Amino acid sequence: MTILVIAEHDNHRLGGETLKSVGAVSTLQQSIDVLVIGSQCQSVIEEASSIGGITRVLVADNLNYKDQLAENCAQLIAELAKDYSHIVAPATTFGKNLLPRVAALLDVGVLSDVVTIESEDTVIRPIYAGNALARVRSRDSKVLMTLRGSAFDAASLGNTQAEQKRVDIAIGNDLSEFVERQVSESERPELTAARVVISGGRALGSKENFGLIEQLADKLDGAIGASRAAVDAGYISNDFQVGQTGKIVAPELYIAVGISGAIQHLAGMKDAKVIVAINSDPEAPIFDIADYGLVGDLFDILPELIDSV
Amino acid sequence: MKVYVAIKRVIDPYVKVRVKSDGSGVETANVKMSMNPFCEIAVEEAIRLREAGHADEVVVVSAGEAACQEQLRTALALGADRAIHIETDAVVEPLSVAKLLAALVKQDQPELFILGKQSIDTDNNQVAQMLSALLGYPQGTFASKVRVEGDDVTNKEGQSINVTREVDGGLETLRLTLPAILSTDLRLNEPRYASLPNIMKAKKKPLDVITPEALGVEIKNHQEVIEILAPTQRAGGIKVDSVAELVDKLKNSAKVI
User: Fold this and answer.
1) Among residues of chain A, what percentage have pLDDT more than 90?
2) Which positions in chain A touch B228 (Cβ < 8 Å)?
3) pLDDT tens digit string along B142-197?
4) Contact A278/A302 with Cβ under 8 angstroms?
5) Smallest CA–CA separation between A143 and chain B, in Å?
6) Which of A102, A160, A205, B173 is most buried (most C-beta within 10 Å)?
7) Parallel, antiparallel, or unpaired: how do β-strands B139-148 and B160-167 relate?
8) Which residues does chain B have with pLDDT short of 50?
């Protein structure tokens, strides 16, 4: 019984969600291997080796894996699978793209977006945009899961060094080819890991007005989020979208400004510890789940709030 | 090129779902059903590819109970040419759906298969990736832009497709060789509405009904749903009257700032 955690990284740094995945499976009290697939990713290997509580880091460092495309990475993981009872990855776009492909190669199912691991084969996962929870048992010989980072504590990076083991399987890929990446630059904390998130909706009215959200975020050292309406209106790029189809966050403080609170949005933030809603419509559904609600014009409220925090 | 689209019948996204008190599932009796929103986007993209001269036939497929034919008719009204209903009353998990679709692909050899990235009921986000694996095809998941290279739809030699994907932290563009599998993200397009004349015409379009057995696929359940639970409700909050009061509460009661 050994668990394989697929590391998410950009060939330079280990993604924080990987630590959440290790933290999540550490409750199963099995030995844990972390798999790093990439190219010239020595810094990631070093970082991964220092994750507390793991046994080994498997390293598949090869030019073929430079862009971590699903086609050959899935095949590689499937070839390594025989030694593992569980294979898990973070429920990020990386993990969601990759793990179901591995599962089909192994002829097993996947438990997606797991929020609670109850036992070796039984988990809880949200369905219907988080309006219901399913307790599901896997009947497969291997359990594959993607893990929702906001539901678990991260494993720590320690001083220990896990054993590093090279994997010399170089699988080519003539099916897909990486063309380019456009990265959204941000100086602020990462949305899914931030302690405070300030989100704006359609009521902001323009891209320029979204600057008010940014000012408040900077005051509180928070990350910026958005509703789908704000993204579709072009106020901010879509990787800031919070909700069923965007990012799932569970910060200590979530401030929803000019967001009505459609169920798809609530699915992404209703596990925040404290929710504040600022909205001019006293009937907006967001007030049903907000701990503190303030009814009024956001253009009056926001500047005052920025000044007083 | 021939484009296949998979669609799923789900509880309408604007319905507030209710968990049954016995934990057996969510209430589906007398609840409005519709086509999964991501599938609508998939249908729209296929039709746009045909309108742009890249596709010559759009085929829609759905697996499930007899009532799925309503959603297939909707897709035909939106512009699909023909429909295939894989009729089964069994619970079809993502891997089973992928196997059913893979069997169809092997028979009919479409160059492109477009699916939604996830269905809003089970929220799995798996079928497109699994279908790609079973067929050994490339996958372009969470697509927000699709560009076909080469305008000659009859020339299938060496054709590829460029797909821009929505990934955490930005966008990523891949080039996939055809045949390929795509899954749609919300921003790929804005689906059209079906006009009344097209709804009438759709009734005459071909809709074939087949069984999983005919496709040689055994529907297997890899997972057992033990119980469906209602999420814990948040305790009702309070409304504050001023910014000063809000800041005071956040500082002194909630202690989060």
Assistant:
1) 95
2) 127, 132-135
3) 999 999 876 555 445 558 999 999 999 899 999 999 999 999 999 999 999 999 99
4) yes
5) 10
6) A102
7) antiparallel
8) 154-155
| Average pLDDT, rounded, for chain A | 96
Q: Which amino acid, residue A180?
A: E
Of B137, B186, B256, the CB nearest to A253: B256
Q: Do B172 and A181 touch (CB under 8 A)?
A: yes
Strands A2-6 and A31-38 come out as parallel
What is the C-alpha separation between A95 and A93, in angstroms, rounded?
A: 6
By the 8 A CB rule, do B132 and B181 touch? Answer: yes
3-state class (DSSP) for residue A43? helix
- Residue A271, helix vs strand vs coil: coil
Residue in A72, A93, A105 to test binding to B, most B beta-carbons within 10 Å: A93
Report the 10 Å Cβ neighbour count for A191: 26
Judge contact between A200 and A210, C-beta under 8 A: yes
- Which pLDDT score is estimated for A201? 98
Torsion of CA A13, A19, A20, A26, to 10 degrees: 160
Tokens standing for residue B136 = 């050994």
A50, B12, B63, B100, B206 from B87: Cα distances, Å: 52, 21, 6, 11, 16
Instruction: Name the minimum distance, in Å, from the CA of B77 to any CA of chain A.
Output: 26
Give Cα separations from A275 to A198, A252, B82, B125, B249 (angstroms): 10, 8, 48, 28, 12
Q: What confidence score (pLDDT) does residue B158 get? A: 57
Kindly tell me the number of DSSP H helices and DSSP E strands found in chain A.
Answer: 9, 16
Tokens coding A173:
């890929």
Instruction: With CA atoms as reference, report the closest residue to B208 among B49, B26, B86.
Output: B86
Contacts of A70 in chain B (CB under 8 A): 129, 132, 139, 141
CB atoms within 10 A of CB A206: 10
SS3 A191: helix
What's the predicted TM-score (pTM) here?
0.95
State chain B's maximal CA–CA distance in angstroms: 70
C-beta atoms of A275 and B142 within 8 A: no
For B103-151, where are the E strands, in sequence order? 112-116, 139-148
